[in-house]
Amino acid sequence: MDDRKFRILQAIIDDYILTAEPVGSRTISKKYDMGLSSATIRNEMSDLEELGYLDQPHVSAGRVPSAKAYRLYVDQLLEQGTLRNLDEETVRAHFTGRAHQMEDIIDQAAQVLSTMTNYLAVVLPPSGRPPVIRNIQLVPVATGSALVVIVTDTGIVRDTVIRYNGQLSSDTLYAISQALTQELSGKTLPEALEVLPEVSRRVGDNADLLRSLSGFLGERKEKGRKPHVAVGGTSRMLTLPEYSDMERVRNLLSLVEARDRLASIVRQNGNVQFTVRIGPESGIPEMENCSIVTATYSTYSGQQGTIGVIGPTRMQYQKVISVLSSMGQQLTELFGHEDGHAGPGDSSDERRHS
Amino acid sequence: MDDRKFRILQAIIDDYILTAEPVGSRTISKKYDMGLSSATIRNEMSDLEELGYLDQPHVSAGRVPSAKAYRLYVDQLLEQGTLRNLDEETVRAHFTGRAHQMEDIIDQAAQVLSTMTNYLAVVLPPSGRPPVIRNIQLVPVATGSALVVIVTDTGIVRDTVIRYNGQLSSDTLYAISQALTQELSGKTLPEALEVLPEVSRRVGDNADLLRSLSGFLGERKEKGRKPHVAVGGTSRMLTLPEYSDMERVRNLLSLVEARDRLASIVRQNGNVQFTVRIGPESGIPEMENCSIVTATYSTYSGQQGTIGVIGPTRMQYQKVISVLSSMGQQLTELFGHEDGHAGPGDSSDERRHS
DNA sequence: GTTAGCACTCACCTTGATTGAGTGCTAACA
DNA sequence: TGTTAGCACTCAATCAAGGTGAGTGCTAAC
Q1: What residues pair up with A157 in beta bridges, in sequence order?
Q2: Which of A32, A286, B50, B328 has the fewest CB atoms in 10 Å of its CB?
Q3: Residue of A156, A84, A88, A126 lying closest to A306 (CA atoms)
Q4: pLDDT the model gives residue B225
């Protein structure tokens, strides 16, 4: 594959990304002046098709880039690596990150990603190693019930109201809290659950309360709260010509509705900084003519989150990669501080993600 | 309008709800045996059209019920009132309400509503009078930062990490918490904000911490966290023939994406138990050929939430009304206890809704 | 190796005829 | 007077036929 072929292929991909229509030889010869006649282009295109880079919907239509072609194209894009920070300022302008709740922040991130790329954006909250307990506090809510607040090292707070028989004063609850904190801090939630019976004996006669607590921890362990998955730009996708087909729209929509499935598709497993999965590369049947581009961000506590964009295979890879890169960087910055926020005097919390 | 006309109209509506196709006179005469020939039906239909109950897409098509017709139909349904509890058991079977978080519960409710009706379901969290503070607790998170937990009478918990200079022991924080609780309990958030400077003076030398707290309360007051709106069944809507038109799908989708707008559309203002808005009755341009049926549920603290179903004007009103009614009842039951949950030994909390 | 020219293919559009569901009207009937 | 059979009429939807044009592959000349 010589340089000229590559340039022609690139022109075809560019044009197809723009128009979503099969590209003819004459278009290339005229719009992208290569100093070659359409006949020559035609010969080259024929070769490219033989090499597997182009497909032909039917004999009298133009050519369409194959997944293999996009792969080449993207690899070449990533190699030169100049695009990384192209959209940094625009992202910074749109994404303020000024919100109290983790959920609001990732919602906003998804919003910005989708408006900037015009594709479907998905943002997963940070996750990673199991959080370690730092502090447990029981706050009286009403007679016979208390709020359990567990502060972990990742800044995550888990809380639930538990009920118990009898009446305990605020001070008693505080005393129990202190005892529990002393006994359980440094442990993960499953570990805490294990030693709880023993601790219970030592702490004393509030067996009932501790049973409730144990029940809560147990439930949490097995099915932690499902993490909030932020999605943006679903309606934007419908303006694309590839989604004039109802079947595909339905597919997309049900994927978006099944958040956990969506999350599992988007989530990155390795710890590479980027992933670009083109069409069938993802191995997901419904995603055959979609591409999935993901990047990661990380928090001060070493947890990792994923941001991703899903679009048609003919997506604007440069733009998407550049925007994702900038957004990843900014989220990492934002979560790089202990309280999870940039800006002095800012109050914050990060919670509700397991 | 005599009885026979009404029966014919009813048959037309029933058939149209089923098929979504204009109904002809022969269909009525054959399928719904009225003991009348198609010619007679035709005369009656002509009258019904003149009365404004039927529309004709074009001269050689059947008739389609108008909004006025549905209104009559629904009013008649509601009048007989027998349908209320038809689906109670089915709802109970699908909707367990076994979840810790308010958000999970309303998500599940939306899910059940949409699967049972096959339309778009929306569930709004309870809202109402401003919550009153019951307990404030500061939980140490790390050096120089603490988690503020505010328990209110509605069971709502608001929390955020605040930062302060210096170092405060767990016991000191507890002492401050107790003082704050004593001073501020019984007050609403804005009231608390007002008296905080004075309290601050009395409590002593932790001016910095209290300034942070004040800042937090102030921010909360002006822009409370936007409530979580649960939506289910978006993709289900696409199977309806009325959504083979892309324009409508796009409309629907962007509405679903704009949760706050969706909430304002669904939310009931009066305190009637039911609302059925048919087509243009809603006054919302995009909803011209949709109907919106809503019901309410309430919590032990007197707050009120809304559940709603959005479907085409030709929706299955009986089914929808019956399901909504049962669900409203069950949510009211579920939130009828102080801890917001049915079932003994269940732990729970309700939070994250302003 | 490149290009002009030409025959060929095939999706897409237009046109026109056909079909069939449905109506409105009229005249006959109970 | 209300009901019905019959008939002419309308009009969306379907289908086949023909035309159009974008695009290709091949060949021969440069």
Answers
A1: A151
A2: B50
A3: A126
A4: 59
Q: Is A303 exposed, middle or buried (0-12, 13-18, 19+ CB in 10 A)?
A: buried
Segment B115-150, tens digit of pLDDT: 999 999 999 998 877 778 888 888 887 777 788 888
To the question of domain A133-225 being in CATH 3.30.390.60, the answer is: yes
Of the ranges A152-166, A204-218, B167-181, B319-333, the best mean pLDDT one: B319-333
Domain ranges of chain B: 3-65, 88-129+227-353, 133-225
pLDDT of A252 > 70? The answer is yes
Is the CB of residue B50 inside 7 Å of nucleic acid strand C? Answer: no
CB-based contact A321:A287 (threshold 8 Å): no
Chain B CA closest to residue A137: B139
> Å from B58 (CA) to D11 (C1')?
8
Q: Structure pTM?
A: 0.84
Q: Work out if A65's Cβ lies within 7 angstroms of strand D.
A: no
- List bases in chain C with any atom under 7 Å of a protein Cβ: 2-5, 8-11, 20-26
Cβ–Cβ < 8 Å for B54, B63: yes
Residue pair A31/A21 in contact by the 8 Å Cβ criterion: no
Shortest distance, CA B57 to any CA of chain A (angstroms): 25
Task: Report CB contact under 8 Å: A137, B149.
Answer: yes
- CATH code: domain A88-129+227-353 is 3.30.450.40
Whether B65 sits with its Cβ under 7 A from any strand C atom: the answer reads: no
Report helix, strand or coil for B65. strand
What is the sign, positive or negative, of the torsion defined by CA atoms of A13, A15, A21, A22?
A: negative
Fold: same for A3-65 and A133-225: no
Q: Is the CB of A25 under 7 A from strand D?
A: yes
Q: In the structure, what pLDDT confidence band is assigned to residue A341 with cuts at 50, 70 and 90?
A: very low
Q: Which CATH class is domain B3-65?
A: mainly alpha
| The pLDDT of residue A159 is above 80 | no
Give B 225-254 residues with CB within 8 A of chain A.
225-226, 232, 234-235, 238-239, 244, 246, 249-250, 253-254
Q: Is the C-beta of residue B61 closer than 7 Å to nucleic acid chain C?
A: yes
Cα–Cα distances (Å) from B16 to A124, B20, B77, in that order, read: 44, 5, 17
- For chain B, the distance separating the N- and C-terminal CA atoms, rounded to the nearest angstrom, is 49
B246–A219 C-beta distance less than 8 A: no
The pLDDT score that the predictor gives to residue B215 is 75
